[in-house]
Specification:
The chain has about 350 residues and is an alpha+beta fold. The chain folds into two domains: about 1-85; about 105-340, BirA Bifunctional Protein, domain 2. The chain has twelve helices and ten strands. The strands form two sheets. Strands 1, 4, 5, 6, 7, 8, 9 and 10 form an eight-stranded mixed beta sheet that branches. A hairpin with a 2-residue loop joins strand 6 and strand 7 (about 255-270). The longest helix is centred in the first third of the chain and has 40 residues, at about 45-85. The structure holds 3,4-dihydroxyphenylalanine. The site of 3,4-dihydroxyphenylalanine has 11 residues, from strand 9 and strand 10.
Length: about 350
């Protein structure tokens, strides 16, 4: 019995995996194992011999069984340890910079301006890019015969033969979101709406699809002074310089009265645009006090609420800030251009952390 015990305990100690343990278990304490065979011999013994051998065999069986269980647990621990070692990961390492995939300058500029206007209390609103001509024109005080409709170079959607409802249009500006936001949220109201707009126009500074951000603030005590301050704060934050010079030019829009177009001082040196210096002016936005008819079209009483609105060209802002001379290249999907002008996607712009670095 001592030989049996020594043999099996040694085998168990040497077993390399659970399969080997199982083989040992079967040959040692299984139904036809060596211990069982010995038990069968008990019948041939004298009662005195049996009294000694019986308990000893049972003890041997118990001992082998508990050695098997202990070894099984040890193997499982070792397997877990090995797995943990191979799956080890240092989560404190910085992310690896990657050259594939960058954020388009328009996405970057949109995130930057959203961060700035959020700080000024404006929330982001959205509207459809395909809209009815009521939202795109009529509700904004541009009736059917108005010359502004022709000036906008509108893309009209085709209607089926015999369908004489007015056509849908690709929105020519983000201004229809003013009406939708007033309808949805009422007054007081402070929203911006960044998004794509469409006009049939194509040259170095115009593409048939481009981006605007609309702004609208409605309340009981709003004046042109609020508009001017908000725009100046915005431009200073966006360009991250204090001496940006703006020029407010009296203008005309059907949906504002009075209206102003705003230009920014810039230079075009060696094919690069620079802001805050030079003798050129680039128009970046239209703005004004919202026309009472527009406020009424949004379902709000213009005798109680006034407001200002503005529409800024996001692409223009991006061209100016990042010195990109040709707008058409924005939409060419040229990877070399995207790698050169694109932004790291993990650098989320914030006012405290920096807009663009
Ligand atoms: N919607 C105008 C355009 O696309 C821009 C604009 C001008 C928007 C004046 C406004 C505004 O909200 O008040 O040319």
């Amino acid at each position: 019995m001592d030989d049996l015990k020594a043999k099996y305990l040694a085998q168990i100690a040497d077993a390399g995996d659970e399969a080997a343990l199982e083989t040992i278990r079967v040959s040692a304490v299984g139904k036809k194992g060596e211990v069982a065979l010995k038990m069968r011999e008990l019948g041939k013994m004298t009662p005195e011999e049996r009294q000694v051998a019986g308990p000893a065999l049972n003890a041997l069986k118990d001992e082998i069984n508990s050695a098997l269980a202990a070894k099984k647990a040890a193997l499982a621990d070792a397997a877990l340890d090995a797995r943990l070692r191979t799956e080890w990961l240092d989560v404190t390492l910085p992310t690896r910079p990657t050259r594939t995939g960058t954020l388009h300058p328009i996405s970057q500029a949109s995130e930057e301006l959203t961060a700035i206007f959020a700080e000024l209390g404006f929330s982001v609103a959205e509207g459809p890019r395909i809209d009815t001509d009521w939202y795109n024109f009529d509700a904004l005080n541009i009736p059917g015969h108005h010359p502004a409709r022709a000036e906008m170079d509108t893309f009209y959607m085709h209607r089926a033969e015999g369908d004489d409802r007015p056509p849908h249009v690709l929105r020519t500006h983000t201004s229809p979101v003013q009406i939708r936001s007033m309808e949805k949220m009422g007054a007081p109201l402070r929203i911006i709406c960044p998004g794509g707009v469409y006009r049939a126009d194509y040259d170095q500074t115009h593409t048939p699809m481009f981006h605007q951000v609309e702004g609208l603030a409605l309340d009981k005590n709003i004046s042109m002074a609020n508009l001017k301050w908000v725009l100046e704060e915005f431009v200073k934050s966006f360009f991250e310089i204090d001496d940006v010079e703006l020029r407010f030019r009296a203008s005309h829009f059907p949906f504002t009265e009075p209206s102003a177009e705003v230009d920014i001082r810039c230079s075009w040196k060696d094919g690069t645009l620079k802001i805050g210096e030079g003798d050129d002016w680039l128009e970046i936005l239209g703005s004004g006090m919202v026309h009472p008819k527009v406020i009424a079209a949004g379902g709000i009483d213009p005798d109680v609420y006034q407001g200002f609105a503005f529409g800024i060209g996001i692409d223009r802002l991006a061209m100016l800030k990042y010195g990109i001379p040709d707008l058409r290249a924005f939409f060419d999907s040229d990877l070399r251009w995207l790698r050169h002008y694109g932004f790291q996607c993990l650098d989320v712009p914030t006012l405290h952390g920096g807009l663009s670095r």
